[in-house]
Design goal:
By secondary structure, the protein is mostly helical. It is built from three helices and no strands.
């Protein structure tokens, strides 16, 4: 009978490396309906992205677009 190896979890070195890596990140939360979540997941999957990758891209692109619009002479201003 062939013995399958069992996952034993992180080694202490892997755990230490993971902890150090995760120190660079914070978690943001957003509430969406189940239907909206499924829509977001399907959209990301169709573009071969993770949901996290898609959300980060959407945020970056929107911020760039908003900044470009703000920098336009006829664009929205912060004082209005």
């Amino acid at each position: 009978m062939e013995k399958k190896s069992q996952y034993k979890g992180f080694t202490s070195a892997q755990a230490k490396a993971h902890k150090k890596y995760m120190e660079n990140f914070v978690e943001l939360r957003a509430r969406v309906t189940r239907d909206r979540r499924e829509e977001i997941q399907a959209h990301a999957e169709a573009r071969k992205e993770s949901v996290n990758g898609f959300i980060n891209r959407a945020i970056s692109e929107t911020m760039e677009r908003d900044k470009a619009a703000q920098d336009q002479p006829d664009g929205p201003s912060e004082s209005s």
